[in-house]
Amino acid sequence: MKNFRIVTEGQSETNFVNRVMVPYFYGRCTLIPITVVTKTDNRHGKIYKGGVGNYGQMRNTLLNTLANASKNPDSYVTTMFDFYRLPTDVPGVAEAEKVDDPYKKVEIIEREVQRVEGYGEKFFFPYIELHEFEAMIFSDITKLEETYFEDDLTALKECVKAQSNPELINNGADTAPSKRIMDCIGSFDKANVGVDVLGKIGIENIAGKCRHFAEWLQCIEERI
Predict the structure, then answer these.
(1) Under DSSP, is residue 216 helix (H, G, I), strand (E, B) or coil?
(2) Under DSSP, is residue 108 helix (H, G, I), strand (E, B) or coil?
(3) DSSP string covering 114-178
(4) Among candidates 44, 57, 115, which has minimal Cα distance to 86?
(5) Residue 208 to residues 107, 119, 135, 136, 178, Cα–Cα distance (Å)
(6) Distance CA 1, CA 10 (A)
(7) Distance between CA atoms of 109 and 121, rounded to whole angstroms?
(8) Residue 53: enclosing H or E segment and its boundaries?
(9) Which of 24-33, 48-57, 162-171 shows the highest mean pLDDT?
(10) Which of 28, 40, 178, 191 has its CA 20 to 30 A from that of 11?
(11) Distance between CA atoms of residues 204 and 104, nearest Å
(12) More confident residue, 48 or 101
């Protein structure tokens, strides 16, 4: 059976792969999330993951994953990182800033990361989330409302009415998907409750609203 190693930005993405994507692809392939290691404290025997600040942190985990996976002809490697606040030293970011189309921006970055690391695109196909992980929740705000029924989500519903494509919801540091949700739900727990909400929304519904996410799923499907 084919296996896909997904290098993730943090715990939310890792939980999403384990709890939502793995059941969706069950019996067809194996998905293995690998969270980026950002710091190693050898003195105290601690390893810190998530909260990526630069490409060097991303790259260490990515290169180890690529090297290990390349030994198995049935293995593939991809990524799951937010475009929002992506470190400026990530390959392709400078070039991407010159274009306006968000989809072209992430395509440039994905292409450059794949090129720089020197592995074929069939084996290694990076995925950059538009604009961030929480955008997928806007695929169906009613599922979020079922959990946080005591909070007023009117602003989120209005956002969906104004922009039906969740991947395009990002107008700045104060209006990105995560910021919008936190403004309405101060206790929002994206790594756990957020992932549960996405499970209720379902992969098919998310893909139906999020074009680039759907394209990523297709890349996996084509390799199974």
Answers:
(1) helix
(2) helix
(3) HHHHT--TTTEE--EESS-GGGGGGG-HHHHHHHSTTS--HHHHHHHHH---GGG---STTTSHH
(4) 57
(5) 19, 30, 13, 11, 21
(6) 26
(7) 13
(8) none
(9) 24-33
(10) 28
(11) 24
(12) 101
Residues facing residue 7 across a β-bridge: 34, 79
Residue 21: HSE in the Cβ half-sphere, 13 Å Cα cutoff: 25
Q: Tally the residues of the chain.
A: 224
Distance between CA atoms of 224 and 216, rounded to whole angstroms?
A: 13
Encode pLDDT of 49-74 as tens digits: 566 778 988 999 999 999 999 999 99
Rounded Cα–Cα distance for residues 177 and 135 (Å): 5
Would you report the helix, strand and coil content of the chain in percent, each value rounded to 5? 50, 15, 35
Give the residue from 178, 204, 39 showing the smallest Cα distance to 169: 178
What token pair was written down for 3?
């296996």
DSSP 224: -
For residue 39, the model assigns a pLDDT of: 60
| CA dist., res. 217 & res. 199, Å (int) | 16
- Each residue's pLDDT tens digit, 124-145: 999 999 999 999 999 999 999 9
Calpha distance 106→82 (Å, rounded) = 10
